[in-house]
What does this fold into?
Amino acid sequence: MSLAAAVATQTISINIGAVGYGLAAIGPGIGIGLVFGHAIEAMARQPEASGRIQLYMWIGFALTEALALIGLIAPFIFKY
Amino acid sequence: MTGDSAAAAGGCHIFSGCGYPAPGLDDFYFQKLFSIGGWNVTKPEFIAILCVIIIVAFFWTAFAKPKMIPGKTQSIGEMAVLLVRDQVVRPVLGKRGDSYMQFLVPLFFWILVMNLMELIPVLQFPSMSRIGFVWPLVFVVYGLYWYLGFKTKGFIGYFRSWIPDAPWFIMPILIPVEILKYVFIQPFTLGVRLFANMFAGHLLLSIFMVATWYLTSLSIGLLYAAGSLFMVFFVFLLELLVDLLQAFIFTTLTATYIADSLESGH
It folds into this structure.
């Protein structure tokens, strides 16, 4: 493979990686929206339980967010 | 803004024929600052040691000679400890969590101060964005919750408590997933969450800082530079939130794992 072709291949694979990460971020995006939405709904229904709800909200947020972050570091783990 | 992209951005502006020197992995490698004996200290190590000194100095001045009527430093120190106790430890662990305060309070504040170092000028590097700084913390937490599990439930009992009650035909799926969760996924996500947040935060900040410098020239670029500068402040505030949140989440999840090990069956 010539140098130009190799550079082009690498550029394409980097760009496809960016698109892949964009797709991978959809799921956690929806998930984080659900977590916060339902937590707010729960707090509106029962304001006296908001302390406990907030705690579980942050835990749920952290677990969902981890998926997006694993997507972020995946290219450094699986180097092409 | 550190590393090679800062040097590359030196005299590089828009419309002067050089491309945008995008920050990348190079920003996370450092030459040694100074060496003590045969030990070369790099910037992340230096920041980590600085944070330890800050934390120890602060709590030492706050609580070395506690008084009935607290002074300024002591009141702030008490507020700090009470913050961790009432927001993190008590809701998860209840009263029995008070004996783990000696571990969780320094953990929270060390991670918090380490993270905030990414926003302080000149230093401007979160050491936690080098994953080598995260794994030791994770190993300590991992060791702690395994030890507590074995201590409260016995050797066999701890492994048995991993498997929840379920119909037998789900077991072939459930057992491997639960084993994977406790042995691998819990510590891995705990470490990667902190690392990746700091890594992404540092990249975001340096991208907009380099972009502001790159776009500054006497042309239409000045307008874009103003927009980029606004983004620097926006990301700064966002990172302030993320730093606090990550310290909070790391401590909360540690407390949750400890509670998981202490609970007798579920």
In short: Chain A touches chain B at residues 51-52, 55, 58-59, 61-63, 65-66, 69-70, 72-73, 76 (CB under 8 Å). Chain A has a mean pLDDT of 85.
